[in-house]
Design a protein that fits this description.
By secondary structure, the protein is α/β, with parallel strands linked by helices. It folds into 2 domains: 5-249, Rossmann fold; 252-290, no CATH class. Helix content is 47%, strand content 14%. The chain contains 11 helices and 9 strands. It has helices spanning 14-25, 37-40, 60-74, 97-125, 146-154, 158-164, 200-213, 221-233, 251-270, 272-276, 282-289, and strands at residues 5-8, 29-34, 50-53, 79-82, 87-88, 128-133, 169-176, 189-190, 246-249. Helix 1 (14-25) packs across helix 8, helix 3 (60-74) packs across helix 4 (97-125) and helix 4 (97-125) packs parallel to helix 5 (146-154). The longest helix is centred in the middle third of the chain and has 29 residues, at 97-125. The protein is globular, with a radius of gyration of 21 Å. This is Secondary metabolism biosynthetic enzyme. Belongs to the short-chain dehydrogenases/reductases (SDR) family.
């Protein structure tokens, strides 16, 4: 495969940082982006990566300008990795509209807006890959993280793929389980300020779970980045396979997807009679259409 140019968001730590190192190790070019890049991305200074300041929550016009700058660096971009994100926590009743909007601005709207910025370039060259970093939380909700989980459910890209495939553009959402990144650190996991006494024990338990889970997650973030690159480049374990529209990564993520699929099939079977009972009778449907 020819040398690819990648643009990756959220590179200050976690998956973003791993992507940069792994992409460069494959001989590809990478534009590493993040907020306050001059200070937060200095660890890439001597790696060969291009560093760019980019806040995905910026207005669309600003993102369009940033994308134009990025496209000029290497004469184009082949892969956009929408990776930036964080976790808002707390029960729904304590969730403020401001916190919900902040979560969606980063995890959903920012990714959609940046995708809009690159699509004219992809359409013109009739090629390009959009990679979204979702989560098993986009398949299974968890108490205390409704805000985050709903943002990952919103990120599913099936409609987008159907709109852009005619232009030769591909998109995929990777859905990792729990990986040993800084996702549960204070920087990326935002605990709510308790406001309702009845949720005090719940919030205490949630905080305890996160603290116990941090640094004990089963997934290796370096291997995650490597497998994502394998899939996009058609190499390694992905060689000879067609790129799917979604892919769980990690044994826990696989279990969540598999269980959800089986539960959904069971529901369809058990409730089929009631589910289809709301259709018009065939003959009446024919009469209405005539």
């Amino acid at each position: 495969m020819p040398t690819l140019t990648w643009l990756v968001t959220g590179c200050s730590s976690g998956f973003g940082e791993e992507f940069v190192h792994s992409i460069l190790a494959r001989g590809d070019r990478v534009i590493a982006t993040g907020r306050n890049a001059a200070s937060r991305l200095q660890h890439f200074k001597d790696t060969g990566a291009t560093i760019m300041d980019l806040d995905v929550t910026a207005p669309q016009a600003d993102l369009d300008k940033k994308m134009a700058e990025a496209l000029a660096i290497h004469g184009g971009i082949d892969v956009l990795v929408n990776n930036a994100g964080y976790i808002e926590s707390g029960p729904v009743e304590e969730l403020t509209p401001e916190r919900l909007l902040r979560q969606y601005n980063t995890n959903v709207f920012g990714q959609v807006n940046l995708t809009r910025s690159i699509l004219p370039h992809y359409r013109e060259k009739r090629a390009g890959i959009l990679a979204f970093i979702g989560s098993q939380a986009g398949w299974q909700g968890e108490a205390g993280t409704t805000c985050y989980c709903s943002s990952k459910f919103a990120l599913e890209v099936e409609s987008l793929q159907k709109e852009i495939e005619v232009f030769g553009i591909k998109c995929i959402i990777f859905e990792p389980g729990f990986y040993r990144t800084k996702a549960f650190s204070a920087q990326n996991f935002h605990f709510n300020v308790p406001r309702i006494p009845e949720y005090a024990e719940f919030n205490k338990g949630l905080r305890g779970f996160i603290e116990a889970c941090d640094k004990n997650q089963p997934g290796d973030p370096t291997k995650f980045a490597e497998r994502v690159i394998d899939v996009i480049k058609g190499e390694g374990l992905a060689e000879g396979k067609d790129m799917p529209i979604r892919l769980p990564l990690g044994s826990d993520g696989l279990e969540v997807m598999r269980r959800k699929c089986l539960e959904t099939l069971k529901l369809c079977e058990e409730w089929e009679k009631l589910i289809v009972s709301t259709d018009y009778p065939v003959e009446k449907q024919d009469e209405k259409s005539s």
